[in-house]
Specification:
The complex is a heterodimer of chains A (285) and B (203). Chain A has 285 residues and is mostly helical. Chain A has helices at residues 2-31, 36-45, 48-64, 80-96, 105-118, 126-148, 153-188, 193-221, 232-284. Chain A has 2 domains: 2-31 and 154-284, no CATH class; 43-149, no CATH class. Chain A is 80% helix and 0% strand. The radius of gyration of chain A is 30 Å and the shape is rod-shaped. In chain A, 25% of the residues are buried. Chain B is α+β, with helices and mostly antiparallel strands. Chain B folds into 2 domains: 1-46, no CATH class; 59-201, Beta Barrel (Sortase, Chain: A). Helices cover 23% and strands 31% of the residues of chain B. Chain B has helices at residues 2-44, 96-99, and strands at residues 59-60, 65-66, 75-81, 86-92, 103-105, 117-121, 140-145, 148-161, 176-183, 193-201. In chain B, the strands form 2 sheets. Chain B has an 8-stranded mixed barrel with strand order 3-4-5-6-9-10-8-7. Chain B has a two-stranded antiparallel ribbon with strand order 1-2. The chains are: A mainly alpha (285), B alpha+beta (203). Chains A and B meet through helix 1, helix 3, helix 6, helix 8 and helix 9 of A and helix 1 and helix 2 of B.
Chain lengths: 285, 203
């Protein structure tokens, strides 16, 4: 019976460890990558909008060469505020499920005006007008491609929404299981609560150690600082986000590990002192 | 005190064992998927660091094959067209980013010396191919690479549509250089025509 109870106790300890591991990763993810405001903050921190503006301008320059037009026609056709507004539109589409299209009318109008000015408002032939419209279409497409990066905003929203929903449900289940496990451990050790403290210490130490090992594994296998996805500006944002998430996990895991060892030590100290007191009382009798 | 430390160490060992069991369980059930995911991430999303000194390219003149190929976006040759006084760098690739730097080499075509079709393209700007209309049959073109110099003589010029890929055929029977640029040279905006210069390798 004692062996069975001990086995049950360790099963509950392992279950509580899984709960802590799960709760940590879900809560870190929910407060970072799955949160629109967090991503917006990272975009500001990494000067994403300014970098995208440079990228867009460089993209426009590629079309000037074969166009017969001067570089001045692509100057100031899209402002930094417009880039911020459009980026936020895309993030809203991804995180909030809105389905707003980008408005490029201002870009087209500014470009057309610049071209007319460069050509001194001279009357163009039909074929010249067609060629210029095609050029404006290409510049517009270049802008959309650089701002948008993906055609799958709707799909990404569905994934994020579904992940958030699943994460909420799993979070609830893990909390319930964790609370139940804590109560069971306390009940098992109701005569000696210091033993429960030592058991909780084992849980914290194991959870902390798990994430420390994961962090080391990721650091050995993937060079996050060399991440290159879509564009240099986007890569910088992803590097910052992933590094922050990994650092948060590392901090929590070190705290858990150290807290766990302290709880184990304190728990065992109290147990040992209580046993020594009992022994000395017995000796007295 | 020894008893406390003994009990503490036993509990820490139990914690380590729980961690090993957890990690072991995850590795046994998802290990292959994790390894595949890590490999994919490293292949697709991680910039490769430059290894420093790059070995020069060599050509097997019998088999007419290069021992290795330059990476996309890298400069590997210089093209000289004395008639229009142009000496330009040649880069592997035909994207707009590549063409901003110089002449692009279509990645679907062969390299100089390989005995097949070589397709280059460049903008019709003053610093590139704006004077292409001055080229005539018999004019010379020289391409200088790390692995050799190759001289060509122009035998034809044509205006084609951008979709007429059959007018720039890829073959391996004989070495031909085909260079194209946008046409007309003074067009505004986007043009659907290309001016192609065809040249044979001088033997």
């Amino acid at each position: 019976m004692k062996i069975f109870l001990n086995l049950l106790k360790y099963i509950v300890i392992i279950l509580l460890t899984f709960c802590i591991i799960g709760l940590l990763i879900i809560n870190v993810a929910s407060s970072t990558i799955l949160k629109k405001q967090y991503v917006l903050n990272k975009l500001e921190e990494t000067n994403y909008y300014e970098e995208i503006q440079k990228l867009i301008q460089s993209g426009f320059e590629n079309y000037i060469g074969p166009s017969g037009l001067d570089e001045s026609v692509i100057v100031d056709i899209v402002s930094l505020e417009k880039i911020k507004e459009d980026t936020n539109t895309i993030l809203s589409n991804i995180y909030d499920g809105t389905n707003t299209e980008l408005n490029t009318e201002t870009l087209r109008t500014n470009l057309r005006n610049n071209i007319d000015e460069y050509l001194n408002h001279r009357k163009l032939t039909t074929s010249e007008n067609e060629s210029i419209e095609k050029f404006i279409d290409m510049i517009e497409e270049e802008y959309i491609v650089n701002i948008l990066h993906t055609n799958y905003e709707g799909d990404i929203y569905k994934v994020i929404n579904s992940v958030n929903s699943i994460a909420e449900n799993i979070n609830l289940v893990l909390i319930l299981v964790a609370v139940a496990s804590v109560l069971i451990i306390i009940i098992f050790n109701v005569k000696q609560l210091a033993q429960a403290l030592a058991n909780f210490g084992v849980v914290f130490t194991a959870s902390g150690l798990f994430y420390i090992v994961i962090k080391i594994y990721i650091a050995m296998k993937i060079n996050v600082q060399n991440l290159s996805v879509l564009s240099p500006a986007f890569s910088q944002v992803m590097i910052r986000v992933i590094s922050n998430v990994l650092n948060s996990i590392l901090i929590y895991s070190v705290i858990l590990f150290v807290l766990g060892i302290i709880c184990i030590f304190i728990g065992n100290s109290i147990i040992t002192k209580q046993e020594m007191k009992k022994k000395s009382k017995k000796k007295e009798y | 005190m020894t008893k406390i430390f003994k009990a503490t160490i036993i509990d820490i060992i139990v914690a380590f064992l729980i961690t090993i069991i957890t990690i072991g369980g995850i590795y046994l059930s998802l290990g292959q998927e994790i390894e595949n995911a890590v490999q994919l991430i490293n292949l697709v999303a991680i910039k490769k660091e430059s290894k420093g000194i790059i070995e020069p390219i060599k050509i097997d003149t019998e088999k007419k094959l290069l021992d290795k190929y330059p990476a996309y976006g890298t400069k590997y040759a210089t093209i000289e067209i004395p008639k229009i006084n142009k000496t330009l760098p040649v880069y592997v690739g035909d994207s707009l980013d590549v063409l901003k730097n110089g002449v692009g080499h279509s990645t679907g075509s062969y390299f100089p010396g390989e005995g097949g079709s070589i397709v280059y393209m460049g903008h019709n700007t003053k610093d590139q191919f704006h004077e292409f209309s001055e080229l005539e049959i018999g004019d010379k073109i020289k391409i200088t690479t790390d692995y050799g110099e190759f001289n060509y003589t122009i035998y034809d010029m044509q205006v084609i549509k951008e979709t007429e890929f059959d007018k720039i055929p890829i073959q391996r029977e004989e070495e031909k250089l085909m260079i194209y640029t946008c046409y007309p040279f003074t067009a505004l905006g986007h043009t659907i025509y290309r001016y192609v210069v065809y040249a044979n390798l001088d033997i």
